[in-house]
Amino acid sequence: MPRIPLEDNFVDVIGKAQRGLKLSDKQLCAKAGIPPGDLALLKSGTVKEEPLRAIARALGLGGDALTSLARRKWYPEQPVFPRGFAMFNTPDGDMTVNSYLIWDNQTKLAAAFDTGTSVESMLDIIQTEKLNLRYIFITHTHSDHIADLARLASSSKAEVWSSELEPVAHPGAKFFKENAHFHLGNDIAIKTLLTSGHSVGQTTFYVTGLSWPTAICGDSLFSASMGGGLVSYEDQYRNNRRKLLNLPSDTVFACGHGPLTTLRQEKQNNPFFTR
Fold first, then answer.
1. Cα within 13 Å of Cα(256), Cβ side
2. Angle at the Cα of 135 from the Cα atoms of 134 and 140, rounded to 5 degrees
3. Which residue, among 202, 82, 197, has the nearest Cα to 137 in the 3D structure?
4. Predicted model pTM
5. Residues 206, 237, 145: CA angle, nearest 5 degrees
6. Diameter of the chain by CA atoms?
7. Of 119, 157, 203, 261, which is least surrounded by CB within 10 A?
8. What are the CA-CA distances from residue 227 to residues 45, 52, 95, 232 (Å)?
9. Class in CATH terms, 10-70
10. Considering the chain, what is the average pLDDT of its residues?
């Protein structure tokens, strides 16, 4: 897997927080105590540390983490899964989107999480590993995450599952509530956590029984950032903090965009959660 760029740069993080808090540029400058020209420079990508830290304070962001992100000093150390886990990164215009596959090595039962824009590589792994795809889980039904769902569902005959709060992703799809439990083989357990805010039914799947406890979190959280609160910034932030940041400290975050990361690293380096 090539090194996947972070989903958001420091300008994106500022924009998400500013929009979420419903602050105009004028209001943000007044709250931060900086002239409009400094904010304009920051939004153009020019790093000026003093106004950047003032903006961080005004937006409730961690100043050290935002500065580190702006100066490109940090990238998450990538966790290693010796077996039973695969990540797929597929192009979507000028962006990319992630999907995931997990499986039990003894029974070969497998579950997919989202599809990205193509499941070609996922189907290759399923065939190579001789897997039986039992479930297709959908984090949320935005088009980039389910673009190739019809092909994966028809080729595998797997059950398609998504939140009862999301629009129907696929004919015949089944629906879960929060805290639903699924199992693969004897060791792998999957629990649903409603981490809404980016979408009404945005779901994180908390998986145990792999090499690391893993939260497949869609667009709830990204390394050094979080999903935009398209439905509710407050809900997205609160759900991330209460439900994701309280998971075991060695939890891996398998995000909908950008690289893998870990809870421990995000607590130290994500501007939204280091204040």
1. 29
2. 170
3. 202
4. 0.97
5. 55
6. 62
7. 157
8. 20, 21, 14, 11
9. mainly alpha
10. 97
Are the CB atoms for 97 and 146 separated by under 8 Å? no
Cα distance between residue 204 and residue 201, in whole Å: 10
Whether the Cβ atoms of residue 199 and residue 229 lie closer than 8 Å to each other: no
CA pair distance 116, 98, nearest whole angstrom:
6
Task: Collect all residues with Cβ–Cβ distance below 8 Å to 121 and sequence separation of at least 6.
Answer: 88, 90
Is residue 76 within 8 Å of 260, Cβ to Cβ?
yes
Report residue 138 as tokens. Answer: 């959908």
Task: Say if CB 259 and CB 244 are below 8 A apart.
Answer: no
CATH of 85-269, picked from 3.90.1170.50, 3.20.20.80, 3.30.428.10, 3.60.15.10, is 3.60.15.10
Any idea where the domains of the chain sit in the sequence? 10-70, 85-269
Residue type for position 273: F
Of 266, 177, 251, nearest to 216 by C-alpha is 251
Distance (Å, whole) CA 248 – CA 17: 26
Query: Do you know the residue count of the chain?
Result: 275
Task: Grade residue 265 by pLDDT with cuts at 50, 70 and 90.
Answer: very high
Token pair of 245, please? 């940041």
pLDDT per residue over 145-202, tens digit each?
999 999 999 999 999 999 999 999 999 999 999 999 999 999 999 999 999 999 999 9
Alpha-carbon separation of residue 211 from 26, 53, 103, 173 (angstroms): 48, 38, 11, 29
Q: How far is CA 57 from CA 9, 53, 247, in A?
A: 18, 6, 27
With beta carbons less than 8 A apart as the criterion, state whether 137 and 111 touch.
yes
Helix H or strand E segment including 120: helix 120-128
Q: Distance of CA 231 to CAs 35, 66, 82, 163, 197, Å?
A: 31, 24, 37, 15, 5
